[in-house]
Fold each of these.
Amino acid sequence: MTEDVHLSAERLILREHVEHISPQEREWLDRHLENCPDCTRLAGATGQALQSLRAVSIPLPPALASRTQLRVYLRAQERRERERGGWVLWTSCGLSCAIGIASAPYVWRAFEWIGHRTGLPALAWQSGFAMWWALPALLAVAIVLIDRIEAKV
Amino acid sequence: MGATSFFSALMSDDTQALARGLRRRDPELLDGLIERYQYRLFRYLLYICGNRETAEDLFQETWVRVLDRGHQFDGKSKFETWLFTIARNLVIDMQRRKRPLSLDTLAETEQNPLQLADTNDPSPLNLVFAREEEASVQASLLGLPAIYREALLLRFQEDLKLEEIAAVLDAPLGTVKSRIYRGLQELRRLLEGGKA
């Protein structure tokens, strides 16, 4: 028998455990195994290796499930609190934006009046108005960023 | 409706219900899943990490991630496939934090991570034989590279289909088959060497 025949037999022996082999291949392999003690031993060893692999059992660490359940529970609680905090934050942001838009013409006039009264250059009081307008959004961004950094830690 | 399609529909409904529960972060569902998959997930992590303490940490981390990313489970695949994928990614992340490696090079194992479970066999002689046999399999398994150990576990202990293993490993089907064949050849060689 050539070496190729044994190699083909070994491939089929492995394949029959991993995938499927056709009835023709099965028939060929059976015929080959009848006349080849080396390949028969190989087939037996492969079957034995798989049986041993399936039989390996491992002990679980004590209370693994309950410790994990507790950790998951605490994490869920933390998430709920964060989500609640997030809802409050975005609602405040929304309200602040709405009030900001509604009051912008009046605040602009107020800043302008203060600018004239104090003799400030136009750029200074206009920057003050821009700051007043952007402050709530900047605060919200800062809170979200701090929250994310804390969550990662 | 045939029996097969009925059971398939039933299973699909189960998976869809599971996906909905995970989206809601249903605490009872999560508790049940942790109980149900504890052995399989811990065994998988232990096989690929080769260290009990690390496997235990990653086990907890995996469930925290299931809670955090439950909305990503679409219910189209099996839950265990998704679970093992999360666990595997955590192992790779951990390895990257330690040093820039992939799972392919993960080979460090502690001395005896796969401690044997107590068997209920009443015969002391059989117990000794069983323990010797298991110890030999253990040693052989630890002698295998992690990528082969993992492929063998998913195929022969988890009984996952080749396509499902490919999804967990994020690898082509051909690579999965080649890892299983090579792992099996190597395991057989190691076991024979142990008996010689």
Amino acid sequence: MTTADPTLAAKKPIWGDDPWPMVVLAAIAFLPLLLINPKTWLVLTVAGLAMGMMIFIMASGLTLVFGLMGVINFGHGAFISLGAFLGATVLLRMTGWTGVDSIPLNLVAVLPAIVFAVLVTGALGWAFERVIIRPVYDNHLKQILVTIGGIIVAEQMIHVVWGPDQIALPRPLGFKGAVGFGEIVFEKYRLLACVLGLAVFAGLHFMLNRTKLGLLIRAGVENGQMVEALGYRIRLLFVLVFVAGSALAGLGGVMWGLYQEIITAGMGMEVMVLVFIVIIIGGLGSVGGCFVGAILVGLVANYTGFLVPKLALASNIGLMVVILMWRPQGLFPVIRQ
Amino acid sequence: MAEALLALEGVHTHIGRYHILQGVDFAVPEGELTMLLGRNGAGKTTTLKTVMGLYRASQGAVRFAGQEIQARDTPDISRLGIAYVPEDMGIFAGLTVKENLLLAAREGDIDDARLRWLFKLFPPMEKFWGLRAGFLSGGQKQMLAISRAVIEKRRLILIDEPTKGLAPAIIGALIEAFLELKRSGVTILLVEQNFHMARSVGDGVFVMDDGKIVHAGRMAALAGDEALQQRLLGLSLGAHQ
């Protein structure tokens, strides 16, 4: 089902038939050049892109879960926290590999940490869907209540397993510091986050547009009942997406934990505010919209933080309000029947 | 008359607290195009959805090719060889015409000969092959919905009000298409309010009212009996002629 099918190759640009969201993205990215020195602007832009890519990794699964089954999962943040703690469990046992200033040697520790976090959060996602989500399909109020309950239980479980204190998670030495291009200097970790985020987006874009599984997911987001009437099990598809979304949240948790260098049981809940802003701005159910929304949130947070620091916290809420006034269903509204 | 491919025996369906189907009995002979007529709210759409498993029958039996299917899930029912074209057509507007058809081709690739036959049946499908289905006109969307149902051979096709809201020229094209589908030997159960369409293509006919079958017979007999039409279908249907 997942075999790549060249006949499904989309001959349209990534943003589809509507160029306006990309115009807005370009405007938000380049207008600050009028107020900021170009070198500083470039550094802020890379920082914004890195932040956006990490949020995209955490949010992409959630938007598909909502699009496919209309499930509002406030518990998604639990997988972000769990991913960070699971990754930290591996990384803090491999300080011999993370304490040397060599990216290849650091990767020997980071890759197993990511794989461990992704596999365990994916498996926990499967259990979460089966035990908590499945009994409350088609009931949004119950979904909100039980998934918030789920994240509270998950946070307490983290306290039980890893203790109540925050844990320092220093970046591997090779990922610390910066690389310079002439007079411009970029943090290595931010460049890595950009590369990883783009790789995840490229993978999702390929899967959604070039494989039959992706075709089924896109069709399911529009009209799940019709997908069933064509002979496919939408519930199975949903479980797959839920597990993948939880695993991506776990990956995002490891990335976010290493970015902040401190992890807490509540970090998933805290970052969920940004995650929800991103998927609402992008259009619920749209992975492309989630990608553009995440970049917008990252850029606006960094430009505002530099230009008007007091407005930094409110900037993303303001961005969401403006976009929803322009497009109430988000930048890339998904057609649903 | 040919043997029944689909048979409903005393089927009751509830939607919430509403008792919609109240003991529906009928049989669709293999190889024929059977019309299911009736006024709005008579239970025609609910009947099709009950056959597809989209609503569960609370009582009675639905048999397809001799097997009871009322307890099966929709995907399993579909995979027995039953295609369904809902009243709202159910096309995926964000997907291209090609992608809509690829989804319906469960065996994998679309058979070339079948595709050529389909393009002859509905030429706009070839013309708009790479276009997103949301940009098609109402008639073209209906053609796509029916194309999706026949892109692979199916034993039974359930179609719900295909002419609703369409221009007479498009209805003419659909009548031609249904006659061609009949010639190909496929069994069709067609819900319709347009009596002109029903008269043109139907072999057998069932008329529903208040969740029950109130008339069963041959379409030709009903078409030739104006008093019976008046009694069963009232003036509202005559207005569609």
